[in-house]
């Protein structure tokens, strides 16, 4: 993850540090390199443009030119702008609702929704001592319902037995009713995913959202999909009032573009990242740490 981007930025950093004084030409060259590095990392073009504009404006300003170590100062600006791009600080999960707090999981098939539902349930149970129930509304894939059952058993959280002959909204309502009666703190609702966005899928998840009125609507997306991840996030965000994004498979060799673009394109924070197939592989997303990691 980010290996190539980090490598390319390290070269820019080295060049900048080598100058006792910077000229506008030095900065122009450096910005050209940064731009190439970001495009190669699959960062969305409008994001690259905005980012470079911000860095350039600050780099030719007093903050950098008047600094005793201008090379270092430009790097500070790049770090700062990377952090800003990703949202400054971690946005925690919001569970401030009359219990049970409902978390609706959305995304395409294979994004990692079901796995992430389990991971999230585990975190909430172990770190926040919440009484958690999970339910699957994927009536099209009984295997997905079973997968969630297995995960819930592994983690030790309650699994609501969905009846695939029922409509997804009816399953969710039955689960909610049960969760209320048994004083659950959190209900995580896993939903069906399709291979591509289609109207039926969107209508179904919109209906679920309208009926459940969840405090969190999280879009789960595979970081390895690069620009496509960002485009799907944008499409979902236009249909559903998302409250956050979870980027999965950040342990893989994704080039990193999705992590850098999603916030800017959707305006929604990345709340967590998936870093492995196991149930422990979910971490809160920290823009500051990610920016430092990118700059090496
Ligand atoms: P869903 O169709 O969206 O519910 O996706 P699944 O939860 O079934 O996940 C699809 C595949 O991605 C499975 O093989 C998961 O083990 C894998 N997966 C999910 N999240 C991660 C992650 O963060 N890292 C890695 N390496 N694999 C993941």
TrEMBL record:
<feature type="binding site">
    <location>
        <begin position="190"/>
        <end position="194"/>
    </location>
    <ligand>
        <name>GTP</name>
    </ligand>
</feature>
<keyword id="KW-0342">GTP-binding</keyword>
<keyword id="KW-0687">Ribonucleoprotein</keyword>
<feature type="binding site">
    <location>
        <begin position="248"/>
        <end position="251"/>
    </location>
    <ligand>
        <name>GTP</name>
    </ligand>
</feature>
<protein>
    <recommendedName>
        <fullName>Signal recognition particle protein</fullName>
        <ecNumber>3.6.5.4</ecNumber>
    </recommendedName>
</protein>
<feature type="binding site">
    <location>
        <begin position="107"/>
        <end position="114"/>
    </location>
    <ligand>
        <name>GTP</name>
    </ligand>
</feature>
<keyword id="KW-0733">Signal recognition particle</keyword>
<keyword id="KW-0378">Hydrolase</keyword>
<comment type="similarity">
    <text>Belongs to the GTP-binding SRP family. SRP54 subfamily.</text>
</comment>
<keyword id="KW-0547">Nucleotide-binding</keyword>
<feature type="domain" description="SRP54-type proteins GTP-binding">
    <location>
        <begin position="269"/>
        <end position="282"/>
    </location>
</feature>
<comment type="subunit">
    <text>Part of the signal recognition particle protein translocation system, which is composed of SRP and FtsY. SRP is a ribonucleoprotein composed of Ffh and a 4.5S RNA molecule.</text>
</comment>
<keyword id="KW-0963">Cytoplasm</keyword>
<keyword id="KW-0694">RNA-binding</keyword>
<comment type="function">
    <text>Involved in targeting and insertion of nascent membrane proteins into the cytoplasmic membrane. Binds to the hydrophobic signal sequence of the ribosome-nascent chain (RNC) as it emerges from the ribosomes. The SRP-RNC complex is then targeted to the cytoplasmic membrane where it interacts with the SRP receptor FtsY. Interaction with FtsY leads to the transfer of the RNC complex to the Sec translocase for insertion into the membrane, the hydrolysis of GTP by both Ffh and FtsY, and the dissociation of the SRP-FtsY complex into the individual components.</text>
</comment>
